[in-house]
Amino acid sequence: MKGKAFIIFLLALAFALTLSPTAAGQARKSKLFRNRYKVENTELRSRIDSMNAVIEELKKDIILKDSLAKEMLSIYEENDDKSAAGLNPEDYSPELTDSLLNIWYLHRQVKNDRNGEGYNMDSVHFSSNVSDEVLRDRLEGMNSFITLPFNETVRNYMVLYSEKMPTKMGNIMGLCQYYMPIFEETFSQYDLPDELKYMAIIESALNPVAVSRAGAKGMWQFMTKTAKSYGLEINSFVDERLDPFKASDAAARYLKDSYRLFGDWNLAISSYNCGPGNVNKAIRRGGGRDFWSVYDYLPRETRGYVPAFVGAMYALRYSKEYGLTPNNAQMPVQVDTFEIRRNLHFQQISDLVGISVEELENLNPQYIKDVIPGNSGTYILRLPFNYTSAFIANEDSLYTHRAEELLNPQTLISSKPTTRSSGASTSTTANRTTYKVRSGDNLGKIAARYHVSVNQLKSWNHLKGTTIRVGQTLVIYKGGAPASSTSNSTASSSATKPKTTSSTSSSKPQATSGQATTYKVKQGDNLYNIAKKYGTTADKLMKYNGINSHLRIGQIIKIPPK
Q1: Are the CB atoms for 258 and 276 separated by under 8 Å?
Q2: Among 65, 383, 537, 558, which one has the highest count of C-beta atoms within 10 angstroms of its own C-beta?
Q3: Helix axis angle, 152-163 to 166-189, nearest 10°
């Protein structure tokens, strides 16, 4: 047995010796592969880390661009003095400072007509066939109350307006034929230099319904606080910042006050853009009381504002030398005005007088819902003179025509502010707009287009980040919030002026169950407010009382039992 066991042992040993080189080789081979995989994995991780770093940098750039409008809005909200631009020099971050002139002013106003890209006026040097000597002589020869020395900054703006944007200037010149006489008459009444009228070109390119990202509105770009301090009415139906007549009157008074404060027209113009507080700070820091002494201490967009004003004035003064001609603005040569003392809808006028609603909007942009709220005061309606006779002939029937349909409280509550322009990629219902994302879009660009913030777009569309795709549909609320959250506040102030106070009680009266309650109409009341007060609807009130939407002070309204 021992011999047999020994033989078996030898055979096993021989078999083991036979296999061992292969096993050892496989082990070495496996170790070699593992080492190679480790090297490859290390290289791949390094490449991925590098790619992630690049992606993160790109994301930061995109987020910075997308959130620029939000940053600007935040700065405005934090600023106590919101007159005009209202930015303090210390409020500017490096990124905002580098981008603000291009984004805030040039990108909004003086784009390159061929490709839509604004010029960076901090670094550009325009070439011109007109020599600097001629430009200097022309500037001096303008004999303006408002003068600036000829330098590289002023020269660039002179060339920009006279040579680099002929289509835009043609449109502006066409609008000038209608609006400039309004400004000239207004400034003459306040004994102000005639040249100040050109400021409206810098503010809005003569667009009466222009809206800035910060919420400044109208041809003269008033912020709400400043507008109200100069007597402009702003409520659910009327925004007099959009009225070229009243807004120019307020602008004239503002400029007169600013000149009285600073004693220099260039500084007065600067204060219109950035607020008197910022100009005073610049004076304290710069030690002088003229524009170039304080230039480096003014907000960046204000530094370009005054030279741009001179550039626009120069281009219009020497338009013939540059072959600039006005485009047809389709504005009436002569306009008649009517005092309206009862609620009146543009559609009522259009139906009986024959003028289009669009024409009425162009001449009366201050009525933001196409409704003149005459029940709460006297308002002006402007019509082309050729419609005057038809208006007078139909005046008695205008106010009753389709009144229950067009002036129904519920209709007025749900009606949206008039949309004066639209794009092919948008559709609008009430104050809700949908936008289809196109190539090249980002959230910042879309937010700026619709005067909302990036955060609002993200919230309304349930976006976690800033990434959007071509063809994606975004929901946008033009009033800044969904209609469901704004309808009550809109309705509560409808048909009333800001200075009119409601005499309704803060407590909510309760109707006795099974019995009708009576209510005496007070100043500032409307059916919606009364219905809300008693927990019913305006429709029920009208049906129960057999009345329409018109109320008079002292009228007794029966409240239906619950």
Answers
A1: yes
A2: 383
A3: 110
